[in-house]
Write a structure and sequence with these properties.
The protein is mainly α and 362 residues long. The chain has one domain. The longest helix is centred in the C-terminal third of the chain and has 39 residues.
Length: 362
């Protein structure tokens, strides 16, 4: 467990260095969380250099692992270089477009596939048998899904602790699955990831002193996606659809945002303030608090959303070898997500109208 403690402490120390040097870099590192950006959920500029703190915890921690886990961790780090650099460029003030960051995530996915020799495995389920049995299509699905998960995790990085808490919970869920299958190498990799993530959580929740940023969120999404692929390929009895349950929340939120922008005839990459977590925070502000209490509604929104995001992970563990049950659970949770989102939007609109009428009457 020395690698776990080392990763956690190193990440905390790196976060401290980022925090105390904030005056030197904040004008470059607060893009998207400056309070003036469309998608911002903060009143004050917030550094987005959490990815550097995560790396500071993981990189040296890899060399404390046993030989097999160290090799897997090393290949993961090498494959993460393109997506990390693409995200870091955005975090430090360069205008790295969403399409460019997505391309970087695809390059990282292709590199990981080459290094590990793994792609999405054959799925013996109606509608997926033919697709996953064809090598070219399997490779394409792997690259697209891996990049999509990177982008989806990044979209969650809007409330204090939301994205990093989800990462920790997803890693714990996969660690439980790995341990149940006696895959100690993957289990230790996940413990290392959890340790480094807990370190940055200290600075991210509840006060939001540092955010993951694109480098952190994209890289963690890539690492989690490929650890899931490692599990699927190393243990054919695992259902890929069950592991997809772990990623359900960020994937569903991302697909809903794409559909929302397409219906409103807006560019898919254009930011807005209609993600689920933003809707929940806005409802809290209108219904119970005010916008001036964002220091409270922001972390409270995370605490409300996390149980909903964790629920499908629990079933992923239960149904880890049951494709049919995982399929039903996946679409059931998608439907619940849609219902909850529409309810939050409607209640937020009703509360806003009541506040507006009171203001007019006064």
């Amino acid at each position: 467990m020395s690698f776990f403690i080392f990763a956690c402490v190193t990440s905390v120390v790196a976060g401290f260095a980022i925090h105390v040097t904030k005056p030197l870099h904040i004008r470059y590192t607060a893009k998207g969380h400056s309070g003036s950006a469309v998608q911002s959920s903060h009143r004050l500029p917030t550094p987005r250099l959490g990815g550097l703190a995560i790396l500071a915890g993981i990189l040296p921690g890899v060399f404390l692992l046993d030989d097999h886990a160290r090799q897997l961790g090393f290949w993961l780090l090498v494959s993460s270089i393109p997506v990390f650099l693409g995200g870091l460029g955005e975090d430090i003030g360069f205008d790295i477009k969403p399409t460019q960051r997505l391309l970087a995530s695809w390059v990282s996915a292709a590199l990981a596939g080459i290094l590990f020799g793994y792609w999405v495995p054959y799925v013996d389920f109606p509608g997926l048998r033919l697709l996953t049995s064809m090598s070219l299509i399997s490779v394409s699905i792997t690259i697209i899904v891996s990049g999509g998960i990177c982008h989806a995790v990044n979209l969650m990085d809007g409330l204090n602790g939301l994205s990093i808490c989800w990462v920790i919970c997803a890693a714990i869920a996969m660690a439980i699955i790995a341990l149940s299958l006696q895959d100690i190498a993957v289990f230790r990799l996940l413990l290392l990831l959890i340790g480094a993530s807990i370190g940055i959580l200290f600075w991210n929740f509840p006060l939001g002193k540092i955010f993951l940023g694109d480098a952190g969120a994209y890289t963690l999404g890539h690492v989690l996606a490929w650890i899931a692929l490692l599990l699927m390929n190393r243990h054919p009895e695992i259902s890929p659809l069950s592991l997809l349950l772990i990623f359900l929340w960020p994937i569903t939120d991302m697909l809903l945002s794409m559909l929302r922008r397409k219906r409103s005839v807006k560019p898919i990459g254009q930011p807005d303030r209609l993600h689920f977590h933003q809707t929940v925070m806005r409802l809290l502000e209108i219904q119970f608090f005010t916008r001036s209490r964002r220091n409270l509604t922001n972390p409270l929104g995370t605490l409300i959303i996390l149980p909903m995001a964790i629920a499908p992970m629990v079933l992923a563990i239960v149904f880890k070898t049951q494709t049919g049950a995982a399929f039903i659970a996946f679409w059931g949770f998608v439907a619940l997500f849609a219902v909850a989102y529409r309810w939050a939007l409607r209640r937020g609109g009703q509360a806003a109208n009541r506040v507006s009428r009171k203001f007019e009457q006064s």
